Amino acid sequence: MNDEINTRPVYSFELFPPKTPQGMTKLADTVQRLNAVAPRYFSVTYGAGGSTRERTFETVALLRDRGIDTAPHLSCIGSTRAEIRDILHRYRSRNIRRIVALRGDLPSGMGATDTGELAYANELVACIREETGATFHIEVAAYPEVHPQAPGAKQDLAYFKQKVEAGADAAITQYFYNADAYFAFVAACRRAGIGIPIVPGVMPITNYSKLARFSAACGAEIPRWVGKRLEDYGDDMDSIREFGHQVVWDLCRRLIEGGAPGIHFYTMNQAAPTLRLWQDLGLPGAEP
Ligand code: FAD
Whose CA is nearest to atom 13 of ligand 1? Predict the structure, then answer.
């Protein structure tokens, strides 16, 4: 299974679990629209500490019931091994075969001593392999612009390598808007002997204030010229969407032309921005 996964470009769509039944109904419509272009799989995020545990299960079930290949995210921080084991067995029995394995971030209010039994993602990957062998194709996170808590780029890369050595099959990156950061990171990985596919994560731009807040927290850099242009548009959402589309389209084009093994779209549960990119990039399944 893994060979097949590793040779064709992998295009995937990330969703988050809605908070309300109405949100779930809306998501079902979004999924239907996104699934029309036949991505390789959808992934569903997971709140660290298990805060979205049941909602992530429900969202995964919604997708699986439609026969869609689905990868739940699973974060280990604040969880016990027994909890992780239970979740893995639930997914295995639902025929889930792909997992995005993460550390997660401690919810505010939790102290450094509340990390749980698995403190870092490499320990989670090792735990998944110990508990379930080769059942799951494991994706891990990668940071072309360096994880915000890492002591430095070199050490972050060394920690990334530990996740791969623990048994990760592929990686998805944090989003970024500078293609050079991605290519330099992939080159550094190859020099360090890391051979797994590293799929760039791409975040469509639709709302500047939210994006700026989120980027500051997760360490993704918005290039100054992009930020300044977006700021100038103020509340003019149409212009933000239009300019954002051009910026992200050009980023995707450079990534694909430069040999990226696919793209993971952070859809934010919205079909239109991702489908427009998909179509304008001429990706497989796009309308002529
Ligand atoms: P790790 O790989 O464990 O790294 C975390 C930090 O610790 C880094 O700074 C690293 O340099 C350092 N480190 C790693 N190993 C060690 C070690 N052994 N000793 C000391 N330091 C170490 N968050 C969620 O809560 N839910 C989600 O669904 C979710 N999905 C995501 C999907 C993707 C594709 C990405 C890129 C991120 C996602 N996140 C999610 C965010 C992620 O949980 C955070 O970025 C988190 O801070 C780090 O997770 P990680 O798995 O990369 O951690």
Answer: 159
